[in-house]
Amino acid sequence: MDDRSANTVTRQSGSNFYFSFFSLPKEKREAITAVYAFCREVDDAVDDPGQKDPASEVARWKAEVTRTYEGHPTMPLTHSLMAAIARFDLTRAYFDGILQGVAMDLRVTRYPTFESLDTYCHHVAGEVGLLCMEIFGYRSERLKSYAIKLGMAFQLTNILRDIGTDADRGRIYIPQEDLRRFGVEETDLLAKKITPHFQRLMAFEARRARDFYREASVLPTAEERPALRAAEIMRAIYENILDRIEKQHYQVFGPRIRVPTPLKLCLAARAWWECR
Fold it and tell me: Reduced to 3 states, what is the DSSP secondary structure of residue 113?
């Protein structure tokens, strides 16, 4: 935990999400920036290689969420978060769920089934989406489903892109049942070997992610889309990452696959226009 502001954390992250925030009016932009910065900081509490006691960091963040909801935050970031909570009546359970998901990375390094992975993804991505939906102004069950499905699609895309980085940390997010189904040895994956079996596995997981993007895309009505511009900009950028993974034939063990900034701007502009 440090004393950086929400804006500083978000700006320094270089995240794909940063591009979508500019489509929002000021109050919503400030709120979603605070939520994103919180998510980034708690994630770094577990994944930062210099972090000596990640479990204690997660516990401190849990305590800070309690203080924030009680009106006594101790950090610039959580002061911003308190303002967002008050302005948009953000649900405490979603923050607790995000922390529960982050804590899973401290004790879980393998997922036997897709159902077990789904639980993790719901916490670290779906509940982030649900908070965003509250900021956008929607709490209907249909748009909650949109947020959860889109969060799952983003997280699965991240898993495919970062499979090598996660292997370096000893983690495999691809379900064990899928490894067996496609004849991929865990040792080969940890050794970052690209084999025909691995490519077939990745193609299967990419199709699964595509299904979530598609299922999410049909849920908002035309009247709702203008308020969901930020989410749709994120969708355009993350789907492009998935496009690149596929076009590179799942060569995900080299330099991190990124969307060039000029293309991000083009994708953002197109998504904004389509949501007008």
Answer: coil
Please give the structure tokens belonging to residue 260: 């060039």
Joined together, the tokens standing for residue 251 give 């060569």
Task: Check if the beta carbon of residue 28 is closer than 8 Å to that of residue 135.
Answer: yes
Residue 222, number of CB atoms within 10 A of its CB: 7
Statement to judge: residues 154 and 85 lie in one domain: no
Q: Which 3 state secondary structure label does DSSP give 14?
A: coil
Task: Give the DSSP letter of residue 226.
Answer: G
- Of residues 92, 88, 105, 104, the one with CA closest to residue 47: 105
Segments forming the whole domain that contains residue 98: 1-107
Q: Can you give the pTM of this predicted structure?
A: 0.93
Report how far residue 17's alpha carbon sits from residue 32's, in angstroms, rounded to the nearest whole number. 10
CATH of the domain at 53: 1.10.600.10
DSSP 248: T
Helix 54-69 and helix 26-47: axis angle, to 10°? 150
Q: In terms of domains, do 102 and 149 share one?
A: no
CB neighbours of 56 closer than 8 A, spacing ≥ 6?
Answer: none
Split the chain (276 residues) into runs of 10 and give each run's mean pLDDT.
60 64 89 93 84 90 97 95 97 98 96 98 98 95 97 98 94 98 95 96 98 96 93 95 97 94 92 89
Pair (96, 154) in one structural domain:
no
How many domains does the structure of the chain reveal?
A: 2
The predicted pLDDT at position 5 comes to: 61
With b for 16 or more beta-carbon neighbours within 10 A and e for fewer, the 160-170 pattern comes to bbbbeebbeee
Tokens of 69: 């909801």
